[in-house]
Specification:
Blueprint: H1 12-22, H2 31-37, E1 51-54, E2 66-72, E3 75-77
Antiparallel strand pairs: 1-2, 2-3
Length: 78
């Protein structure tokens, strides 16, 4: 649900914020804020738990508007 931060519903960045909080690590809300909060990794370096940014319906490669969490083995939870 767009703008939902849980616990009954989440949008993409709400899910990533809640997942990292459950692991004891605070990250900012919002896809754009999350994009600038970490250190970029190449696809060869990506590890489970890393955030994966995509264009979504309103973004572009330079301004992604969707985020998921890499689960390993080519799987992204979003």
């Amino acid at each position: 649900v767009w703008g939902a931060k849980g616990p009954d519903a989440f949008d993409c960045s709400g899910l990533t914020t809640a997942a990292w909080a459950a692991a004891g690590i605070g990250i900012p809300a919002g896809t754009v804020n999350q994009k600038f909060a970490g250190t970029p990794a190449s696809l060869a370096q990506i590890a489970p738990g890393d955030l994966v940014f995509t264009t979504g319906s309103l973004g572009s490669p330079g301004n992604p508007r969707h985020v998921g969490i890499y689960a390993g083995q080519g799987v992204v939870v979003n």
